[in-house]
Amino acid sequence: MRAILITTLLLITAVLLYTAIAEGDGGMNSQVNGVGEAISDHIRRMSP
Asked: What is the per-residue pLDDT across 11-44, written as a single tens digit (0 to 9) for each?
């Protein structure tokens, strides 16, 4: 479980860095919103 969480956080960090460098502010804002939605959906599914 801990390994999955660490891997997910590293993947999110890599995506955010890529969007910050390659797409600028507009792309980064949309990516942050998408990642936030994905994380919240995942947490809701994990909660009993």
From this structure: 888 888 877 776 666 666 777 778 888 888 888 8
Q: How many CB atoms lie within 10 A of CB 19?
A: 20
Answering whether pTM is above 0.70, one says no
**Neighbour-count burial for 24-44, b at 16+ CB within 10 Å, e otherwise:** eeeebeebeeebeeeeeeeee
Distance CA 6, CA 24 (A): 26
Q: Rounded to 5 degrees, what angle do the CA atoms 29, 4, 24 make? A: 15
